[in-house]
Specification:
156 residues; mainly beta; five-stranded antiparallel beta sheet; 11% helix
C-alpha cells in the first residue's frame, strides 16, 4: 500500500513540474511615468504606444526599445507631435537599472488654427439703366434747349 501512495505522490508532483514555466522568473518590463503638458491646457494627448489623457496629466507606458511620439490635439488649434527618446541607464552593484524619457515633461505649444479666408462672390457688373427713348412722342413737351437742332422739327 505504501508503494501505491508513493507512486501517486510522485505522479502528482511530476504533473506540477510540467505546468511550470521559465517566464515566471522573468521580471515584468519596466514602465515609465511620462508627464504630458500643453499650452493651452485641455488638449487630448496620445502616445504612439496607445496611452492617452487630457493635459495636464501623466501616463504610465511600458518602456519601449525605440523612441515614441506624443500627439496633441485641441479643437480650433493646429495639432502637434513631440518625439520622445527612451534613456536606459544600466545598473551596477550599488544602483539598479533605470529607464527615463527625454523630454519629461513632454510639452507642446499649440498654435491657433488659421480661420479659412471667406469665399468672395465674383464681382458682377451692374446692369446699365435703360436709355431714354431716342424719339419723343409728338404730344410730349419739348425737351430743354439743345445746342443741336431737332431733326424731326421740319417734317410735318
Amino acid at each position: 500500500m505504501r508503494r501505491v501512495i508513493a507512486i501517486a505522490l510522485a505522479g502528482a508532483s511530476l504533473g506540477g513540474c510540467s505546468s511550470m514555466s521559465w517566464d515566471m522568473f522573468k521580471s515584468a518590463p519596466p514602465t515609465v511615468q511620462v508627464r504630458l503638458e500643453s499650452n493651452p491646457p485641455g488638449a487630448d494627448a496620445t502616445t504612439s504606444l496607445g496611452q492617452g489623457c487630457k493635459t495636464p496629466c501623466s501616463v504610465s507606458v511600458p518602456a519601449p526599445d525605440a523612441p515614441f511620439t506624443v500627439a496633441f490635439a485641441l479643437p480650433k488649434y493646429q495639432p502637434a507631435s513631440v518625439p520622445v527618446n527612451v534613456v536606459r541607464n544600466p545598473g551596477d552593484f550599488t544602483t539598479p537599472a533605470s529607464v527615463t524619457t527625454d523630454p519629461n515633461p513632454v510639452f507642446a505649444e499649440l498654435q491657433p488654427a488659421v480661420p479659412p479666408k471667406p469665399v468672395r462672390k465674383p464681382h458682377r457688373p451692374k446692369k446699365p439703366k435703360p436709355a431714354a427713348p431716342a424719339v419723343a412722342p409728338a404730344d410730349a413737351a419739348p425737351a430743354a434747349a439743345s445746342p443741336f437742332p431737332d431733326p424731326n422739327a421740319g417734317k410735318r
